[in-house]
């Protein structure tokens, strides 16, 4: 079985070429899942086996009949009486198939059995607040929370590391019971309440306890209840109120990961159960390297979930800022990028010459700031692995090659008697500073640009004995500008698995997010806390999951594509300073990094127009991209065939974003919008295009006379006369403005000379 080491965010990001994108935070000392066995079974590995559905008279709810059908494939392989034991999971909802441990000979025998479709070895996939609700415009006093009843009545499912069910974020005071359609339950000894209505484990320990912390954090971010007086390590707003995006929503938790990691067979089992149980939205902060859609179990399972009305929200990956590093790229999932919030855990470095540099830290010591310390920097020992000089009582400057400082450097400074440490961010991370809790050694992390200036001061002149510094701790600062910016680790497009489809779809807060944490899981060394600060697209994903639940509450009859469109087309392209959203280098961010823009919940519930898509549309895309064999694998429980479908390229898919080739010849795409606003509505097209790009829309006016009326228009894009032939990328926007200006329906337009349409 292919293995990917699960690492904490700081380590995984420097191993992009060797491993795969990490979508969150997991303990570094994860142990591999045992392959077990000896003799004949020593070479066995777990396979996900896709088979045709059982005989037509078998009902989908007849779990026993499905399992017997699946076991029959193993009996025919010569596995004998052991077959029942070796069916790890039997899938009936998001797949027709099973997971089992098979030797090469047994797999060959299974593949010859009538009804066999395909088998592939499972991979190991990886785990991808008090401030972000307010930053996104969610307040208890009114607005979208009141309009949506805080998401009450919607059900969010989480595929993650479990949950700390006793955490105050998951109390059910004043909550109604789940809706009658709910079929799930809580696995003993967990007791369900009106908040946590489902909990099940699909991993070896068979408990839903979150011994990693990731699942509790993501669940709290999406739908945690209001908790007063919250802080982490004395930070986070001086004891503010924590809440998730949809605090009134019900939760169902499916533990598919543990300290050993996350395996695709377990993930599919959790997805299978969640869809059968009746969740509305499924949050998946997991993923791996980019994989063709017909070989990606998350994409295959999500396709079935979408056909049953379940929106699947997935993390885009943490392998940025490199291009084409995305995970979870299928057009039927909502792929999330990560950005910053307007909060800083401020720890500024003040030099002896009076110059000040803003940094951040979760270790804050106000008494430290009242003193001045000798400043030490060694160009030869700049990574602080060890010291050959006396640094007792000094503030030490250290470089780092990881997004957050390695514990070994902190221990080296502490053991050598250093009073404090200033870590210089790696250059690729620009203005992104990822913080984590460490030992109580006063410290600050600064950008590479500021770090270069601090190093220059430390090395100035022939003697450094008079160079001094201190770290000024300002606790938590809010209202930081510019915000949001794209987090450096957030994976970027263009998509490899879904060419022609603009990914990621949307950006949400994912940098230094404060949310619920199991107090039994140590933070720092070895410190307990019921809230923690974590970074990753794993943290951005539940923000969008919660917003999707709010939209679902207001529009229960909308398709998953309509909800996705509403979130994308109402997003913002500007930061809190009124300028275009920037990337980690403070350059204009490409749509390949932010998707359509930064989520705006208050607008998402009332988008005016939506771009809708159905199963046949996605199937047509699969036919054009991968062919009939792939369609059979991805849409295995349907009767769809490419012969009966109209193949469609990514450019022509009715997506809320437009991605086309950049060339001198005009390239036209069609789009259809559905009126979900006032019955009588009129919209005018507004084009924003850079110099060198020509964009035309026909018709430029849309008039609607009823709700759910559909209108089709054509967008034609070409390189303008005289444009440079060396230009690779040009970006603009198409916005439909209602005449009363109550609705602005904005879509990004990306013209890329590297895009080819087969």
UniProtKB/TrEMBL annotation:
Localization per record: Secreted
CC terms in the record's Gene Ontology section: extracellular region
Signal peptide: 1-24
Domain Subtilisin-like protease fibronectin type-III, chain residue ranges per copy: 652-750
SUPFAM superfamilies linked: Subtilisin-like
Active site (catalytic residues): 160, 214, 538
Any Pfam family matching the protein: Peptidase_S8
Domain Peptidase S8/S53: residue ranges: 151-575
Matches recorded under InterPro entries: Peptidase_S8/S53_dom, Peptidase_S8/S53_dom_sf, Peptidase_S8_Asp-AS, Peptidase_S8_Ser-AS, Peptidase_S8_subtilisin-rel, Peptidases_S8_3, S8pro/Inhibitor_I9, S8pro/Inhibitor_I9_sf
Keywords recorded for this protein, A-Z: Glycoprotein, Hydrolase, Protease, Serine protease, Signal
First-listed, main subcellular location of the protein, grouped into a coarse class: secreted
GO BP annotations listed: proteolysis
Domain Inhibitor I9: 46-128
Sequence similarity: Belongs to the peptidase S8 family.
Name under which the protein is recorded: Subtilisin-like protease SBT1.9
Lineage: Eukaryota, Viridiplantae, Streptophyta, Embryophyta, Tracheophyta
């Amino acid at each position: 079985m292919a293995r990917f080491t699960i690492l904490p965010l700081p380590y995984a990001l420097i191993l992009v070429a060797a491993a795969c994108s990490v979508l969150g935070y997991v303990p570094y000392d994860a142990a591999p899942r045992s392959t077990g066995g000896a003799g004949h079974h020593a070479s066995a590995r777990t396979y996900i086996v896709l088979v045709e559905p059982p005989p037509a008279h078998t009902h989908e709810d007849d779990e026993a009949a499905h399992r017997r059908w699946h076991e029959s494939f193993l009996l025919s392989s010569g596995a004998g009486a052991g077959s029942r034991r070796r069916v790890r999971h039997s899938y009936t909802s998001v797949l027709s198939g099973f997971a089992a441990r098979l030797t090469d000979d047994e797999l060959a025998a299974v593949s010859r059995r009538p009804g066999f479709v395909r088998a592939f070895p499972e991979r190991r996939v990886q785990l991808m607040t008090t401030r972000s609700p307010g930053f996104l415009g969610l307040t208890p006093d009114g607005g979208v929370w009141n309009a949506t009843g805080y998401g009450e009545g919607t059900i969010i499912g989480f595929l993650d590391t479990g949950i700390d069910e006793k955490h105050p974020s998951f109390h059910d005071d004043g909550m109604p019971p789940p809706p009658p359609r709910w079929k799930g339950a809580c696995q003993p000894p967990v007791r369900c309440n009106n908040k946590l209505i489902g909990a099940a484990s699909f991993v070896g320990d068979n408990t839903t306890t979150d011994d990693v912390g990731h699942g509790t954090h993501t669940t709290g971010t999406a739908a945690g209840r209001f908790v007063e007086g919250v802080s982490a390590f004395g930070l986070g707003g001086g004891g503010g109120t924590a809440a998730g995006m949809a605090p009134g929503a019900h939760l169902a938790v499916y533990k598919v990961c543990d300290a050993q990691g996350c395996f695709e067979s377990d993930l599919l089992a959790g997805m299978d159960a969640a869809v059968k149980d009746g969740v509305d939205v499924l949050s998946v902060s997991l993923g791996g390297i980019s994989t063709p859609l017909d070989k990606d179990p998350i994409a295959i399972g999500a396709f079935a979930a979408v056909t049953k009305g379940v929106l699947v929200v997935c993390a885009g990956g943490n392998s940025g800022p490199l291009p084409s590093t995305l995970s979870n790229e299928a057009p039927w999932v909502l792929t999330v990028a990560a950005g910053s919030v307007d909060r800083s855990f401020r720890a500024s470095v003040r030099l002896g010459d009076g110059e000040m540099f803003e940094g951040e830290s979760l270790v804050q010591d106000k008494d430290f700031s009242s003193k001045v310390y000798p400043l030490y920097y060694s160009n030869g020992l700049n990574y602080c692995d060890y010291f050959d000089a006396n640094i007792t009582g000094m503030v030490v400057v250290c470089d780092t090659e990881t997004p957050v400082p390695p514990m070994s450097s902190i221990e080296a400074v502490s053991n050598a008697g250093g009073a404090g440490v200033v870590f210089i961010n790696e250059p690729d991370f620009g203005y992104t500073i990822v913080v984590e809790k460490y030992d109580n050694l006063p410290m600050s992390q600064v950008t590479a640009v500021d770090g270069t200036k601090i190093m220059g001061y430390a090395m100035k002149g022939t003697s450094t004995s008079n160079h001094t510094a201190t770290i000024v701790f300002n606790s938590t600062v809010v209202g930081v500008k510019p915000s949001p910016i794209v987090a450096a680790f957030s994976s970027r497009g263009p998509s490899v698995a879904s060419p022609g489809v603009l990914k990621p779809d949307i950006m949400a807060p994912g940098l230094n997010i404060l949310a619920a944490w199991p107090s039994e899981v140590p933070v720092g060394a070895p410190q307990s806390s019921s809230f923690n600060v974590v970074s990753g697209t794993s943290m951005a994903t539940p923000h969008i999951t919660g917003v999707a639940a709010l939209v679902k509450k207001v529009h229960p009859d909308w398709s998953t594509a309509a909800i996705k469109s509403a979130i994308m087309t109402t997003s913002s392209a500007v930061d809190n300073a009124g300028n275009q959203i920037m990337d980690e280098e403070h350059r204009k961010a490409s749509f390949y990094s932010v998707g359509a823009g930064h989520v705006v919940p208050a607008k998402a519930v009332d988008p005016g127009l939506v771009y809708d898509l159905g199963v046949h549309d996605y199937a047509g895309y699969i036919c054009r991209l991968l062919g009939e064999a792939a369609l059979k694998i991805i849409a295995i429980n349907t009767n769809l065939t490419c012969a009966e479908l109209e193949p469609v390229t990514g450019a022509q898919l009715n997506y809320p974003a437009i991605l086309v080739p950049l060339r001198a010849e005009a390239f036209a795409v069609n789009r259809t919008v559905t009126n979900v606003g006032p019955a009588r509505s009129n919209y005018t097209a507004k084009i924003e295009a850079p110099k060198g790009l020509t964009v035309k829309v026909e018709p430029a006016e849309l008039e609607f006379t009823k709700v759910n009326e559909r209108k089709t228009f054509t967008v034609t894009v070409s390189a303008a006369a005289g444009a440079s032939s060396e230009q690779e990328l040009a970006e603009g926007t198409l916005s439909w403005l209602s005449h009363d200006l109550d609705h602005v329906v904005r879509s990004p337009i990306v013209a890329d000379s590297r895009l080819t349409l087969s």
